[in-house]
Design brief:
By secondary structure, the protein is an alpha+beta fold. Helices cover 61% and strands 14% of the residues. Strand 1 and strand 2 form a beta hairpin. Helix 1 runs antiparallel to helix 2.
């Protein structure tokens, strides 16, 4: 991981390079890598959606309708990702091809 501070006209900006640890572009070593990615994505969706949910009551009717649709979409994606994580974690080492 590479971290550096860039100073620009607007102020300071922290730049972090995670490409060596991202898991992209390499073969996953085991089911734990995939499970970690699934859980990370679940957390990201929850975090992004919470801001929409918290502010929905203050929106006008059209904005609120769109926000609720976004929340419903997020719930659907969360369900699918959670089901995948549960299935992966219950397979066990023999069923998943590992000895």
């Amino acid at each position: 991981m590479e971290v550096e501070w860039n100073v620009r006209d607007e102020g300071k900006k922290l730049v972090m390079d995670f490409c060596a640890a991202s898991g992209r572009g390499r073969v996953m070593e085991d089911d734990h890598d995939l499970l970690a990615l699934l859980c990370t994505r679940i957390g990201t969706i929850m975090e992004d959606t919470s801001a929409i949910a918290i502010t929905a009551a203050m929106m006008n009717s059209d904005e609120r309708t769109r926000a609720i649709a976004q929340i419903a979409d997020a719930v659907s994606r969360l369900g699918a990702l959670t089901a995948a994580a549960v299935a992966l974690s219950t397979l066990g080492p023999v069923a998943s091809g590992h000895q």
